[in-house]
């Protein structure tokens, strides 16, 4: 027996237990891959991400083969070993002997899971024999979407669109790159300066990375800053700025940007990104609710913290670690920041509010409530020509409303909301 792949599988198991038991975000749990060789780190990431993307399906499959699966509190990591092993077999096309042997070794190494080694071995052998047929008969989108989320989307967008959103979450998302100008070799131009690779790529290995010719940003995330219009030579405050995708976009468009971010470590990431891109912005580490500019400015962009349910394609753990109360908490926090943002806008100026959430409390309802509290602002509808003619991305209020099922034929896009508000 070979132990090839064991470090990667150990790391994947640690990531899955961190996410599923401690509700840690995947990006944070991925620290378990530090120190691994690039290939092992990639394999660990693939096992963990795909297990989370397919969690509902994998749990249903295992229930079919083991009516009484190992109890989470008495079996150490046995449940996660089973899930990851089944994922390797059915979704990552790992040869049966390697996946089953890997799972056995993980169970052997844990004093609680070791008692379940015979069970793990037997179940994974059955999965390798009969699992494909079970998976093919499942309704993947339904199983992989918790009810609380599906019901919210059906309520807001209707059943058909909710299903299309859930379907869009089943695949690995494309990689979108924003170019500072030129074409990106090997990628397709989506619109404006946005280029798309259909398959995941190692970004730092792409031509032009070291020279700072581009940055990574989902196509949908590039649209809110465009709603400010021509910002060349204009003062723009970018609130909640890190890691700086929108700061870079505004600076590259010639704006004089002040980027405000609360988390020092995240601001360090913004610095690093701007330095590589050879772009400049004034930076302020501070809370947007307390900080104020010396004088109001003509343009403010607020990319508010949110439940991030529009980014489930890129963060497949979100459905399993978030809950409806997170949506409420996030919308309350964003409402306070939005009121502060309003105070920073000069008369006649524009405020763009954006979130990467699909939830209406964090989108249109947030704006309705803001307008009720702040009579000196009005909604200014987005025009299709401002977003490359994509009229389907504008809702009945005239706000930007992208969904993961939009641009389906080209690989979809994140769910973003943005409203443009003009101060009288
Ligand atoms: C959605 S992310 C911003 C993404 C960023 N605009 C970009 O395009 O790369 C939200 C950011 O808001 C920051 N944040 C949350 N509450 C804040 C507050 N009260 N003041 C300033 N920043 C805050 C978070 O630390 C996080 O970095």
Automatic annotation (TrEMBL):
GO terms for biological process: regulation of DNA-templated transcription; RNA methylation. The keyword RNA-binding applies. S-adenosyl-L-methionine binds at residues 240-246, 261, 287, 303. Residues 137-424 form the SAM-dependent MTase RsmB/NOP-type domain. This is 16S rRNA (Cytosine967-C5)-methyltransferase. It comes from the Bacteria. Its EC number is 2.1.1.176. The active site is at residue 356.
């Amino acid at each position: 027996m070979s132990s090839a792949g064991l470090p990667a599988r150990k790391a994947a198991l640690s990531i899955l237990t961190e996410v599923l038991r401690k509700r840690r975000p995947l990006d944070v749990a991925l620290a378990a891959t530090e120190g691994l060789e690039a290939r092992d780190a990639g394999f660990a990431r693939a096992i963990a991400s795909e297990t989370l993307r397919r969690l509902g399906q994998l749990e249903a499959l295992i229930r079919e083969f083991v009516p009484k699966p190992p109890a989470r509190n008495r079996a150490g990591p046995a449940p996660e070993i089973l899930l990851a092993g089944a994922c390797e077999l059915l979704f990552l096309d790992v040869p049966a002997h390697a996946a089953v042997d890997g799972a056995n070794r993980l169970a052997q190494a844990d004093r609680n899971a070791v008692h379940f080694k015979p069970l793990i071995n037997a179940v994974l052998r059955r999965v390798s024999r009969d699992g494909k047929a079970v998976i093919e008969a499942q309704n993947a989108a339904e199983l992989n979407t918790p009810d609380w989320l599906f019901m919210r989307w059906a309520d807001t967008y209707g059943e058909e669109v909710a299903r299309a959103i859930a379907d869009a979450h089943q695949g690995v998302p494309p990689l979108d790159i924003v170019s500072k100008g030129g074409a990106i070799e090997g990628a397709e131009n989506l619109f404006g300066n946005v280029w798309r690779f259909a398959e995941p790529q190692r970004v730092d290995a792409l031509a032009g990375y070291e020279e700072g010719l581009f940055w990574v940003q989902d196509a949908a995330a590039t649209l809110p800053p465009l709603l400010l219009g021509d910002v060349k030579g204009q003062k723009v405050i970018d609130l909640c700025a890190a890691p700086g995708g929108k700061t870079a976009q505004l600076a590259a468009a010639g704006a004089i940007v002040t980027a405000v971010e609360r988390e020092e470590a995240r601001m360090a990431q913004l610095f690093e990104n701007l330095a590589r891109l050879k772009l400049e912005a004034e930076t302020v580490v501070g809370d947007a609710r307390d900080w104020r500019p010396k004088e109001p400015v003509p343009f403010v962009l607020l990319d508010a913290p949110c439940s991030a349910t529009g980014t489930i394609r890129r963060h497949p753990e979100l459905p399993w670690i978030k809950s409806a109360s997170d949506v409420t908490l996030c919308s309350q926090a964003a409402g306070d920041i939005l009121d502060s943002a309003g105070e920073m806008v000069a008369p006649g100026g524009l405020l763009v509010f954006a979130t990467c959430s699909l939830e209406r409390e964090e989108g249109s309802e947030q704006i309705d409530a803001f307008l009720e509290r702040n009579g000196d602002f009005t909604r200014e509808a987005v025009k299709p020509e401002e977003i490359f003619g994509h009229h389907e991305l504008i809702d009945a209020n005239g706000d930007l409303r992208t969904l993961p099922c939009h641009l389906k034929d080209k690989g979809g896009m994140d769910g973003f909301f943005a409203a443009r508000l003009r101060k009288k």
